[in-house]
Design brief:
With 72 residues, the chain is mainly α. Helix 1 packs antiparallel against helix 2. The chain is elongated and about 55 Å long. The mean pLDDT is 94.
Length: 72
């Protein structure tokens, strides 16, 4: 594996980690704010679905990185 592809792989791994961490922190913040300000459960459900989409996106990126490593 050359240096350029290793750097690209490292950046993709960091991106996936940031997506997971950012999604989790954002979801926790919205849940806290929702309870503190009395937002409707239906409104919070929208953020739950968005968080689920963020976790799926991070999982897809992780699987793509894993498959690329197995191929090499």
């Amino acid at each position: 594996m050359d240096e350029g592809s290793r750097h690209t792989e490292d950046m993709a791994s960091r991106r996936a980690a940031l997506i997971f961490a950012g999604t989790a922190l954002s979801w926790l913040l919205v849940q806290w704010a929702g309870r503190a300000y009395g937002w409707s459960p239906l409104f919070l459900l929208v953020f739950d679905v968005l968080a689920l989409a963020g976790f799926v996106w991070g999982a897809v990126l992780t699987v793509r990185i894993w498959r690329k490593r197995r191929k090499e």
